[in-house]
Amino acid sequence: MASLVFRIRRKYFDAIVRGDKRTEWRKASSYWINRIAGKGLELDTAVFICGKKVHRRRIVGITFLPTPTWFSEQGKKDVNTPDCFAIELGSEIKEGSQ
């Protein structure tokens, strides 16, 4: 299967590790469209990197939708397009498990 790799800020990384953040948002740029469409239905793992720390979660689903208006100011700067991808996260993948 295939994975998507995300470099993210510490506060978002920590929230994903705790299980508080269950959705990763990415702007619908040509970069992300190609990465997601190029791997298609094979995508099953999200790999989050923050500094030297790595955390893996299952991908439950990916949805293309209008960018939410309730984003934080930083979120609005990061996803500054009318459309985005919502990557729904599932359970943690422990080291060595499949």
Listing every helix as H and every strand as E from the N terminus to the C terminus, the arrangement reads EHEHEEHE
Number of strands: 5
CATH topology value: Archaeosine Trna-guanine Transglycosylase, Chain: A, domain 4
**Helix run count:** 3
Radius of gyration: 13 Å
Give the overall pLDDT as a whole number: 90
Q: Please give the alpha-carbon distance between the first and last residues.
A: 10 Å
Sheet bearing the most strands, described?
Answer: 5 strands, mixed
Proportion of residues in extended strands: 35-45%
Low-confidence stretches: none
Main CATH class: Mainly Beta
- The total domain count is 1
Secondary-structure class: alpha+beta
Largest sheet, order of strands side by side?
1-3-4-5-2
| CATH homologous superfamily caption | Hypothetical protein
Helix content: 25-40%
- CATH architect. name: Roll
Task: Describe the protein's architecture and organization.
The protein is of the alpha+beta class. Helix content is 26%, strand content 44%.
Descriptive labels:
alpha+beta; globular; 98 residues; Archaeosine Trna-guanine Transglycosylase, Chain: A, domain 4
